[in-house]
Amino acid sequence: MTDIAREVVLARPALSLPVAADFTLVDRAVTPPEGEGWLRVRPLFLSLDPYIGARLRGRHMGERAPVPGETLPGFCVAEVEESRAPAFVAGDRVVVEAGWTDVAWVRSEDARRVSTDIAPSLHLSVLGMPGLTAWAGMTQLAKTGTGDVLTVNAAAGTVGGVAGQITKNLGGHAIGIAGGPEKCALVVDRYGFDACADYRGDDWETRLVSAVGDGSTIHHENVGAGQLAIGIRLLRPYGRVVLCGLADHYHADAGPAVTAIGPIVGKRAQVFGLVVYDFYPRWAEWTALAEPWVKAGRLTIAEDIGEGLDAAPRQIERLMRGENVGKTLIKIDG
Ligand SMILES: NC(=O)c1ccc[n+]([C@@H]2O[C@H](COP(=O)([O-])OP(=O)(O)OC[C@H]3O[C@@H](n4cnc5c(N)ncnc54)[C@H](OP(=O)(O)O)[C@@H]3O)[C@@H](O)[C@H]2O)c1
Fold it and tell me: How far does residue 50's CA lie from ligand 1's centre (Å)?
């Protein structure tokens, strides 16, 4: 059966930070592929992530930029409607890079089956790639444990929010940094951080220093060189630094992220670069730890949801501007 897919595509090459006008919606005939090993999937939610801005310009991990009119790459949680692969049946729920579309045929080996007894959107946030990133940074690189004091920025977002909740669940303290009072309230009241400093507010560094007290033992960087310098300054000797994201440097016209190495030497700090791809083979370890926390209410995330693919251009612009509060998603079906 040939489907008519609703898709979001680039209307023009993305030369700068993406804005809504860079995208357009099209209807496209999707013909079933020949042969075995295919799944016909119906996406429930599409994940929008900060790396997309760089990916659309061909500046992400060597991946080529999509051309106007082409299906945009993006991960979805989806329901299998038809399976031509023995490992899957209709009704399975999977996470797969189906693209910005409401129906697709995907290779079965590219699909990861996920549980159906948890809200589907969580497989793109706390249990998905950003959650795995936080797990890798906190437990595999920084090796957080009892008594650690974490500072983490973009703390209302998935990576930052989950990093802090992991630290708290494993016996440490978490101090967030976020942009605006709404985000900071979320970080403390819902995510359970000990404190959160609003870097848009007056005298915010003084309030951060007082929240951190005797110094931090781990700094997790999601934003860029400016806040990294502050994180390193607050670190105790022999602290650990996880370099995860550069949300403030992804703009096409932004300069490179540059940081002074003297303070790193002075603090005898260990600095870890993090690429989540390295941890994809270990997804089951994170799921085994995280699912019970989710079910017990000890791991949560706010969701910033756009309804329908029509909302995707506006949602990606919000995310690129840092206006999102929590995990940015498009609800497609379900
Ligand atoms: N290394 C890896 O493998 C890996 C994997 C996944 C994600 N990451 C990175 O981890 C970071 C957090 O990811 P996430 O998915 O949880 O995203 P997110 O926190 O939901 O969104 C990014 C946040 O960055 C902050 N930000 C600060 N300056 C910004 C600017 N100039 N433009 C846009 N945003 C700005 C904003 O929060 P505030 O308003 O609170 O500052 C914004 O909400 C990102 O840098 C992402 O690229 C890295």
Answer: 6
Write down the pLDDT at residue 212: 98
CB-based contact 173:192 (threshold 8 Å): no
CB within 8 A of 125, min separation 6: which ones?
47, 131, 158, 301, 303, 326, 327, 329
Tokens of 19: 């804005």
Query: What is the total residue count of the chain?
Result: 334
Per-residue pLDDT reduced to its tens digit, 174-220: 999 999 999 999 999 999 999 999 999 999 999 999 999 999 999 99
How far is it, in rounded angstroms, from Cα 117 to Cα 32? 30
E strand segments, the chain = 3-10, 23-30, 38-47, 76-83, 93-96, 104-107, 112-114, 149-153, 173-178, 195-198, 216-221, 235-243, 270-273, 303-307, 327-331
Pocket test for ligand 1, best of 124, 175, 223, 300 (most atoms within 8 A of CB): 223
Instruction: State the pLDDT at residue 28.
Output: 95
Low-confidence ranges of the chain (pLDDT < 70): 334
Distance 5 CA to ligand 1 centre (A): 30
Q: Which atom of ligand 1 is nearest to the CA of 180?
A: 39
Q: Is 275 in the pocket of ligand 1 (CB under 6 A)?
A: yes
pTM score > 0.85 for this model? Answer: yes
Q: What whole-number distance in Å separates Cα of residue 276 and Cα of residue 160? A: 14
